């Protein structure tokens, strides 16, 4: 095992120190054993003596199996061609903020890394980069392609020591978690300073009615150009593309993209819901931005330009929330 990863790991059940044996990690406090799968610690647990919830256990196992299947399909390709531009620009912004503020770069966690949407950008700025996911196949793909130090884990039982990471990056993960309050408590425990969170927001479908909401003439014009291009693509596609191409069109028309994200537990999250949970756990808002995902496959120069122009503080399809530890108002000493 990598020594830097082992140094920040702890037992997710009792938070005791763990030591490496030949084929497992052993908790020195509760004696629980965690297998090593070709060097990857499998520290997924679904219940403890102090907390048992059959629904949470069922959901976590379901998500693990689902994302194992997606990692071995064309899911990755579909995600990148549809959300890749927005995600790359957003994570690059995160990385620029992090590297300009701290030298050398601090310990950073890609939370629920999946197949590597955040890691493939962040790893160019930050090394080593740590990651966890509940899906073995997704984590293996992320580790193989991006060189992250990974561990298999359940977000309700994180196997990391208190304040193991100065910064945690979360992109499109929280909407999968039903017991979000418990997950945020664990997230706050392992984060020393800053959490970046991005999620899609409800009613994010393209609409001409939204033109008036975008601030400034430049953004209104950019959004109008996007809508014209979007509907032109739809109309041309309906008229000329059949079979496999039609699937792409239907995907663009889908508001929630259920063909991409098939989890039955998914739900849209409002900024206020996420922010209130973070505040409750000792964090405060640093900033809030909105990105508009250009809902057309590809990653061309025009799509990049429109995505950059449309970033603002009022409206979009995805929010980018930065929360910092509130050291002036820490009520619970376990968090600060």
Walkthrough of the structure:
The strands form two sheets. This protein has a seven-stranded mixed β-sheet, sandwiched between helices. The chain has about 325 residues and is an alpha/beta fold. The chain has helices at about 5-10, 55-70, 75-100, 120, 135-145, 180-190, 215-240, 245-255, 270-280, 300-310; strands at about 20, 25, 35, 40, 110, 130-135, 150, 165-170, 190-200, 285-290, 320-325.
How are the SSEs placed, and which strands pair?
Blueprint: H1 3-8, E1 18-20, E2 24-27, E3 33-37, E4 40-41, H2 54-71, H3 75-101, E5 108-111, H4 119-122, E6 130-133, H5 136-146, E7 149-152, E8 165-171, H6 180-190, E9 191-200, H7 217-240, H8 244-253, H9 271-280, E10 283-291, H10 301-309, E11 318-325
Parallel strand pairs: 5-6, 5-8, 6-7, 8-9
Antiparallel strand pairs: 1-2, 2-3, 3-4, 9-11, 10-11
Brief overview, please?
By secondary structure, this protein is α/β, with parallel strands linked by helices. The protein has ten helices and eleven strands.
Taking all residues together, what is the mean pLDDT?
88
What is the overall silhouette?
Answer: globular
User: How many H/I helical runs?
Assistant: 10
Q: Report the radius of gyration as a whole number of Å.
A: 20 Å
What's the number of extended β-strand segments?
Answer: 11
Q: Give the spatial strand order of the biggest sheet.
A: 7-6-5-8-9-11-10
Succession of helices and strands = HEEEEHHEHEHEEHEHHHEHE
């Amino acid at each position: 095992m990598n020594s830097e990863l082992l140094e920040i790991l702890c037992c997710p059940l009792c938070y005791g120190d763990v030591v490496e044996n030949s084929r497992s990690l052993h908790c020195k406090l509760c004696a629980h054993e965690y297998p090593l799968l070709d060097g990857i610690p499998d520290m997924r647990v679904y219940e403890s003596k102090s907390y048992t919830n059959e629904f949470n256990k069922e959901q976590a196992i379901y998500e693990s199996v689902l994302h194992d299947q997606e990692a071995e399909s064309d899911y990755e390709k579909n995600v990148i061609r549809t959300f890749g531009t927005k995600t790359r620009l957003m994570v690059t912004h995160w990385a620029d903020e992090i590297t300009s503020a701290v030298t050398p770069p601090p310990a950073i966690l890609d939370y629920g890394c999946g197949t590597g949407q955040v890691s493939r950008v962040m790893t160019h700025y930050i090394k080593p980069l740590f990651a966890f996911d509940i899906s073995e196949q997704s984590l293996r793909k992320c580790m193989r392609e991006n060189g992250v130090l990974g561990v298999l884990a359940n977000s309700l039982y994180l196997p990391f020591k208190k304040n193991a990471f100065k910064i945690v990056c979360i992109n499109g993960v929280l909407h999968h978690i039903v017991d979000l309050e418990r997950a945020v408590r664990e997230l706050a425990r392992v984060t020393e300073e800053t959490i970046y969170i991005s999620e899609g927001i409800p009613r994010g479908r393209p609409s001409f009615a939204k033109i008036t909401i975008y601030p400034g003439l430049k953004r209104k014009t950019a959004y109008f150009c996007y809508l014209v291009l979007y509907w032109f693509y739809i109309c041309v596609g309906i008229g000329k593309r059949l079979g496999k191409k039609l699937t792409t069109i239907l995907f663009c028309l889908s508001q929630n993209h259920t063909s991409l994200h098939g989890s039955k537990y998914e739900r849209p999250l409002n900024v206020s819901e996420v922010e209130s949970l973070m505040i409750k756990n000792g964090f405060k808002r640093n900033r809030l931005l909105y990105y508009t995902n250009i809902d057309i496959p590809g990653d061309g120069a025009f799509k990049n330009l429109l995505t950059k122009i449309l970033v603002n503080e009022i409206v979009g399809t995805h929010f980018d929330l930065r929360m910092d530890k509130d050291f002036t108002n820490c009520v619970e000493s376990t968090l600060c």
